[in-house]
Amino acid sequence: MKPDWVNLLIRSFDSKLSKNERAELENALQNSQELREEKKRLETMRGVIARSADRSFKPFFAARVMRRIDAAANQQEFIESLSWMFRRVVLAGALSVILLFASALLTGRASSFSTLFGMPQVTIEDTLQLED
Amino acid sequence: MTDHDLIERARDGDNRAFAELVKRYESQVAAVVIGMLGNSDYADDVGQEVFIRFYKALHGFRGDAALGTYLTRIAINLSLNELKRRKRRLFFYSKSENDKSILESKTDEQPDSFENQELVQQALQKLEPQFRAVAVLRLIEGYSTEETAQALKVPLGTVLSRLSRAQKKLQEYLRPLLQEAV
Questions:
Q1: CATH number for the domain that contains residue B61
Q2: Which letter does DSSP use for residue B138 in this model?
Q3: What range defines the domain where residue B98 resides?
Q4: pLDDT digits over B80-138, tens only?
Q5: Closest Cα of chain A to B90: distance in Å?
Q6: Which residue in B has a C-alpha nearest to residue A40's C-alpha?
Q7: Which of A41, A85, B150, B169 stands 20 to 30 A from A119 (CA)?
Q8: Are the beta carbons of A104 and A110 closer than 8 angstroms?
């Protein structure tokens, strides 16, 4: 049995052979008992594989998927509410700073760090002097 | 109810409609994932991930491809990713968990069909992932060679040559089973 015949035979299951190839294969099948057996083996193998495929997950697969989707949705909800809160805190903080700054300007007081935040501004030199 | 109706309902937040879609396509996804990864907890996790990805993409799903084809594509890609991760893990552990599960699950009391299923699974797992993917799509899912090429994004010629090599290997691995059957 020629290896070319086997390749041709395998290809015949999955693609359209040309007219010449089809004639060659038919001729080979007529003359070779071995090739006919090979064809039968291939057909059997393809049948066995198709029939024996495992087509099921463990029981309650859909329920497990839905549980994971629910858990992911809850997590997403939690992250969204956390980010909603964070945005509001940041907004309120920024608004307070603007109000403080505006009030300092309107009341004519200096808009220094110490007036705005009620603490003295410390430079690196001050810190070094304190250490001495 | 058609897939399209169920997708519309799921988009509107009806989780029961989505669960129905999961049940409808579970076996198709299982055949691909278990064919690629063997019947293990990993396969179950990857199967779940396939549907979670679909759920997240529900609003963007235009239905250009049939839902089964769409899910099969996700399943094959996630399985190939899992095999890459597994290969990296095997670098650190000498024995594959897959080998272990095959040995552990074998008993003398199992019926013939189960034994055949196990033998086919073992044979598929021996193939290189790129050959296995072609064999699973063509021989198990029944895709045409053109559909297989599209799903794997490889040329048709590559699918045909991989399929040919995969079949020769499978014939070799399944020889005892085939001798009985012929």
A1: 1.10.1740.10
A2: I
A3: 3-181
A4: 999 998 887 776 654 444 444 333 444 444 446 667 788 888 999 999 999 999 999 99
A5: 24
A6: B182
A7: A85
A8: yes
